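Let's do one together. I've listed all components of the complex below, 766 residues spread over two lines.
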Amino acid sequence: MAATQGTEVEALDTPCLLLDEARVRANVARMRARLASLGVAFRPHLKTAKSREVARLAMGAPAGPAIVSTLREAEYFCEAGLRDVIYGVGIAPDKLARVARIRASGADLAVILDSSEQAEAVAAHAARSGDRLPVLIEVDADGHRSGVAPEDADALVAIGRRLVAGGADLRGVLLHAGDSYALSDPEALAAAAEAERVAAVTAAGILRADGLPCPVVSVGSTPTARFARNLTGVTEVRAGVFMFGDLFQAGVGAVEPEDIALSVLATVIGHQRAKGWIIVDAGWMALSRDRGTARQGLDQGYGVVCDRDGTPYPDLIVADANQEHGIVALRRGSTAALPDLPIGTRLRILPNHACATGAQHGSYHVLDGAGRVAAVWPRINGW
Amino acid sequence: MAATQGTEVEALDTPCLLLDEARVRANVARMRARLASLGVAFRPHLKTAKSREVARLAMGAPAGPAIVSTLREAEYFCEAGLRDVIYGVGIAPDKLARVARIRASGADLAVILDSSEQAEAVAAHAARSGDRLPVLIEVDADGHRSGVAPEDADALVAIGRRLVAGGADLRGVLLHAGDSYALSDPEALAAAAEAERVAAVTAAGILRADGLPCPVVSVGSTPTARFARNLTGVTEVRAGVFMFGDLFQAGVGAVEPEDIALSVLATVIGHQRAKGWIIVDAGWMALSRDRGTARQGLDQGYGVVCDRDGTPYPDLIVADANQEHGIVALRRGSTAALPDLPIGTRLRILPNHACATGAQHGSYHVLDGAGRVAAVWPRINGW
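Okay, and this is what the predicted structure of the assembly comes out as:
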């Protein structure tokens, strides 16, 4: 059934994605206030939301700034008026034609890179096209993934010089402290944020010492954005998953469980009473295969089971999942009572990972303060 | 770039999904011949493909038979002429109105259930609507998920009688030996297939002994369909993932690695040479979060890395993945040499789980015998 304004959750086809708009607004306001108090700009990451309506809540203005994870996102958001945007995955040379088309539409789309090969391709593109393509050099904050080592002056300067010589617009440096996801101690998280800051400032200093421009010093991850105490030398912070929150970020301590705005609405379709199983129509296709909490102190299975209003049942999780079946059971060792949930009961399941769970769905059913569906917001997937 | 006929793989935007049509045809022909030799009908499961074009390759006729995992699939395929179809997830009473709309369009859509509560709802629906809704009773082959225990005569007869009394069309029994996915020994797989058969025949016998109809005895999973030796008493076998194959099913032994028809095309976007990492633009968003092979003898990470023509590099896997980054590295302990793959190199990645990887994409880029894109076939997601 297509949802219309004021629809009760009971009238929705399941499984589907629910979004608590008030929680998104509160999560964004909290992050915005925190970063303002630290004196840095906020560049929301739109890879979790992939929705123009959510982007409007997250961004300070329709023109941005923002960062995206795919060129499809860049196109989708720029068609809706986004202007200041970074494509936050290392640029492949054969994506430059698509970047140029997006820039030709009026958006100030910047790319990132971490090698001389990419700098050569981007410089050649800038020289050939006459477009002063903006570039940030990706710097490796913590050995997590991509990026030039922050103290590797030879590499940083070679990349920066090649870009400038080719006529590209060297904007600065960009880092992502992805290893912070593996932490949960506030002191360790504050230290990760400080390490990210120091790496950023180090790399920026190397560029500037060579006379290269570096107006932007961009860092960010939801955990380090939450725990940073000092951002001297940083100009902007990026974060995305905090808007919705999820069980994994709650395990890190970067969000509070009661602030999680995203859930999957499911219906009870069966029982295996001898085993203490309740079968629901949300399997891994609706919840995603993400099992990130398996590596944390509290393994949440495929998600925490709540009643239709969002209140968690004690120790009740999606213990296993098939494609379209979720197996709901008490956490191993629990002494709680299995709730009596007859066939047809509507449940909400909190996700392990908002980015992964959201991607399994084509829209958000947006809840108002009374728990009714106030709107349906489309979201995009793909590249 | 939108792909057109004859497009080279180099011209595609990455990441994207590639499908080798000749392998799909061969996989289907092999399964069809195998089941014909065992004297049973074949009901392909369309949950992996979610594509009308693939369904046409898999089905013996446009009208079916087939089985689907969502009502969205039922609608999508029935609009294209599918008539004989089972919705293979236990029916929730509030989905019956949507089932009725699909049936009113001319499709013989059957539902499954495993409880008296569902039988009561279905019988009441049949009595109220006058529609002889076809029903199969789901029977539990192996304790994997849903279903009435095959020897639980009281439950089977109570459900069957209630359905018949209400005017529903009791079609028979349906089982899925999902625990076969955990096996890899051919003898154990043959035993799982035989256990699935015996459970099916036992349950069917109980219904018939009570004078209830049971024309259909439906079993199936890709592993048991591959390893069954005797299907006496079974009328049809269902399987889906075998059409494409994947690394997980190769680990089970249910498909050969060289028959895997699905892969994700990716581009090299960076290196961390000191660590032996090659970074590609296919992360878990493109590959899925499925890590099913982690529980098998050979952990394939997030997928096996092949060259652009589909030939695997020795011991090269996607060792880790972020949302839009794959970290390609040699398998731990490998003595193979890391191949030199410059930025821009196109690679193909074989998936752990075809159902999960396919669901991350909106279409298949279909390869012809020369490795060129012969067509783009859309696929659906959602519910």
